[in-house]
Q: What sequence folds into this?
């Protein structure tokens, strides 16, 4: 279904109601799906995707796990992907996996990654980090690298 520009609420309702999100990206020098945000949005609603092999589809679709990738110009390949996904309700399993995978891209998780990266590079440079107690807790809780606690002072 191609509806053109739609309001956010309608887009979300359509993605939630869909069994499969299909966007067989093709190589076009003028435009390409750079990151795969459309696939990520579908994933947030437990909607698995079928995407092309070009552009950002492969950044979001984990082939045979959260969706399927195929040659977006090959109609038979697209049809086979649809059949494969619908067989034994595999799209339901992939939709759940897509939802779980999408959580790493939620804003709160991205913010955690950002703060951990900043802390890591400051510590690696030997720069002292002056932060409050709650930020120290955050770094100890969410950052996966080992911290030399002497580099962190609290206010």
A:
């Amino acid at each position: 279904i191609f509806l053109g520009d739609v309001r956010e609420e309608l887009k979300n309702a359509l993605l939630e109601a869909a069994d499969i999100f299909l966007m067989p990206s093709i190589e076009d020098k003028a435009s390409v799906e750079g990151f795969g945000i459309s696939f990520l949005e579908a994933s947030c609603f437990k909607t698995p995707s079928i995407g092309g092999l070009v552009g950002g589809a492969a950044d979001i679709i984990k082939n045979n796990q959260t969706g399927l990738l195929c040659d977006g110009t090959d109609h038979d390949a697209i049809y086979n992907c649809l059949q494969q996904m619908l067989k034994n309700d595999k799209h339901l399993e992939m939709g759940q996996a897509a939802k779980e995978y999408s959580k790493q891209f939620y804003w709160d998780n991205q913010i955690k990654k950002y703060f951990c990266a900043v802390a890591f590079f400051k510590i690696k440079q030997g720069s002292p980090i002056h932060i409050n107690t709650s930020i120290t807790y955050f770094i100890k809780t969410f950052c996966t690298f080992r911290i030399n606690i002497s580099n962190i002072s609290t206010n």
Remarks:
- The chain has a mean pLDDT of 82.
